[in-house]
Design goal:
alpha+beta, eight-stranded antiparallel β-sheet, 19 strands
Length: about 650
């Protein structure tokens, strides 16, 4: 009875991965004549719920970007610019360590072409893309556009000419010009970060002392309490409008999406790095960043006139006078918002200015609260120095971005972590009073609050240290370079190395896969080895750009229970369906199953999966015996370690019996 229940459990657990060809994107093509010789080709994809198609501009080392190949274009037609895209979304992928740019619900590409040979009436286009949910699928579609009849249709691969001459994919690490916007949730996050930054600015020596002075001015100069409150509210709204105007100007000058393109460019990352270093030095006391005094004097003269105009100029005077403290914070905020593109700079300035204006309005409404404010003193400079250290740490993120884009390996994970450990360690010593800086007030003791913050910073510093030895440091995921971008992938001293497999002699055709598991990337060689050692085969259909494949490897295969099985009880054959290496000409063919041309190693293994197992998604796991018969139902993405272990053990048990 127990065996029956167990079999039923396995049946239902893996029913969801029954062999099937998944097609989550439906494509339609259309053509529009723009002039006597110019035509616009459009590709519209309707995407099933929760699936994502990746943009042409998704960075390298991430999911596969969409790519267009225009056939037989030489001397017949030319591409005008690059293919444009409909609205995309951006999200950081901690597995690959890059931002994904993707479509949800629908994807629309348009490409303008110019006919140069009137005799050429047919344009054939090949669209390759990756679509992911729990599994990933790499797909290629073929389209034909008739320039004479203005008809467009999807065709089979066998109907495509062999002359591929134009490729419209972009190297996104050099020329990332995506027309993308942050999702609403990302804009909310920008607003929250900016709001907190505004509160931080309030606690600096340039702004905090102005709260009681400004509020007292309004309450004393106004004839009634209501009038004082009204004036203070106008003052607060003026502050918000001034900073939102600044964000709007930045966005209008550079363009909503150009900001994103700039921020991901190598040279601008280096410029941002230098800017943040300058801001940090200013906060640490090396010098002050100030606007010309003449500006403040002229604004003060206008403020003296009174009325609403005078109040607006008072708000402008606050912005100018406090610039030495707020400038670096605003600069950092705009740099970070620029990396999000769209209206993020405007949203950022709205959040920052709202936090800055709120205390002035609240204290005007409730003047008695002024008595509860702490007195100005040395603690304000401590806040400023604290922000300086944070600016310094953030600066190296931009330097890291530039190094990652260029793949120079000058600023790898260990160097980044060592710098952060030094920065936050020094900050901890500063908070404990062991280090003093130019503008610090002499003190014989530190406050309990400062001690508490110092302990938190010290704890964070200690948390970073194991990262040098290969610890994942999920708390700061996305800030340091990914673990694969390291001078020692196993951690300093090789402590992360799987010692149980380190001394193994690799069989012919094998290599060290994830966690040093012996793995084959050629099916025939792996099968031959499995027969020689009489072990079952774990056939792993995977992809270099498959997110959930990496999640399985990082979080499931790394578990000691699973790792032991993969090292000792099965032969792992990993077939990469997105391997772009060309097959020798004599090995290229047209698939009898799909009609597609099989020209690369990845095409071969994808066709192998579709033809033999009637499935096209990755990850896709199959347990086979040495006669290539399935030992259990295939499994897909299975993040539950216990469930995956039971699936492995059930197939292995069947092989042994």
């Amino acid at each position: 009875m127990k065996k029956i229940i167990y079999v039923l459990f396995l049946f239902f657990a893996f029913a969801k991965v029954q062999a099937q060809i998944i097609n989550p994107v439906k494509w339609e093509a259309s053509i529009e004549k723009k002039s006597d010789s110019e035509y616009q080709l459009s590709f519209k994809g309707t995407i099933e719920k929760d699936w994502h198609v990746y943009s042409q501009f998704t960075p390298e080392d991430g999911p596969l970007p969409a790519e267009f190949l225009f056939h037989d274009s030489k001397n017949n037609y030319e591409l005008i610019g690059k293919a444009t895209e409909s609205e995309t979304h951006r999200k950081f992928n901690e597995i690959f360590g890059v931002d994904e740019i993707f479509f949800s619900d629908k994807a629309v590409f348009t490409q303008l072409i110019k006919q140069t040979n009137p005799e050429k009436e047919v344009v054939q286009v090949e669209l390759s893309y990756q679509v992911c949910k729990e599994n990933c699928i790499s797909e290629t579609k073929y389209f034909e556009f008739n320039l004479k009849t203005l008809e467009a249709k999807e065709i089979q691969a066998a109907d495509i000419t062999n002359d591929k001459t134009e490729k419209t994919t972009v190297n996104p690490t050099i020329e990332k010009q995506a027309e993308s916007e942050k999702t609403d949730s990302s804009l909310y996050m920008i607003f929250i970060i900016a709001f907190l930054s505004g509160f931080a600015a309030l606690l600096t020596p340039c702004v905090f002392p102005m709260i009681p002075m400004t509020v007292s001015f309004f309450t004393k100069q106004s004839k009634t309490k209501a009038k004082g409150i009204k004036n203070a509210i106008i003052y607060g709204i003026s502050i918000i409008l001034i900073y939102v105007f600044l964000g709007s100007v930045i966005t209008l000058l550079f363009g909503a999406d150009a900001l994103n393109a700039l921020s991901t460019n190598v040279w601008f990352n280096i410029i941002f790095f230098i800017l943040l270093i300058v801001f940090a030095a200013s906060f640490l006391g090396a010098f002050e960043i100030m606007l010309p005094n003449s500006w403040a004097n002229k604004v003060d003269q206008q403020a003296d006139k009174g009325g609403i105009i005078g109040i607006v100029f008072m708000a402008l005077a606050l912005a100018i006078v406090s610039f030495s403290c707020t400038g670096p914070i605003i600069g950092t905020l705009l740099v970070e918002a620029a990396s999000k593109g769209g209206i993020a700079p405007i949203v950022g300035m709205l959040g920052f200015s709202s936090a800055l204006a709120l205390p002035f309005m609240l204290f005007a409404m409730f003047p008695g609260w002024l008595n509860t404010l702490p007195k100005s003193g040395g603690w304000l400079n401590t806040v400023k120095v604290f922000l300086g250290f944070l600016e310094l740490a953030l600066a190296f993120k931009f330097l890291s971005n530039a190094d990652l884009v260029l793949q120079l390996h000058w600023f790898e994970r260990e160097i980044f972590l060592a710098i952060w450990i030094a920065i936050f360690g020094t900050l901890a010593f500063y908070l404990f009073g062991k280090i003093t800086l130019p503008h610090d007030s002499p003190t014989s003791s530190i406050s309990v609050g400062r001690l508490g913050v110092g302990l938190i910073v010290l704890t964070f510093t200690i948390y970073l240290i194991p990262g040098l030895w290969g610890a994942p440091l999920k708390l700061i995921s996305g800030f340091p370079p990914p673990m694969t971008y390291s001078e020692s992938p196993y951690g300093v001293g090789g402590s992360g190395k799987n010692t149980s497999s380190a001394e193994k002699v690799l069989p012919d055709g094998a290599h060290k896969g994830p966690h040093d598991i012996t793995a084959f990337t050629d099916y025939e060689k792996g099968l031959a080895y499995a027969k020689s050692v009489n072990k079952p085969i774990l056939l792993d259909f995977t992809g270099f750009a498959c997110v959930n494949c990496r999640k399985m490897e990082d979080y499931v295969w790394s578990d000691p229970r699973i790792l032991s099985i993969l090292n000792n009880e099965v032969v792992l054959i990993s077939l990469y369906v997105d391997d772009k290496r060309e097959l020798p000409l004599e090995e290229q063919y047209v698939s009898k199953e799909t009609g597609k041309k099989i020209t690369t190693i990845g095409n071969k293994w994808s066709d192998f999966q579709i033809t033999r197992y009637k499935a096209n998604a990755q990850p896709y796991y199959i347990l086979l015996d040495t006669n290539e018969q399935k030992l259990s139902k295939p499994a897909g993405y299975t993040p539950d370690i216990t469930e995956y272990e039971q699936w492995l053990k059930s197939g292995i048990a069947k092989f042994q019996n």
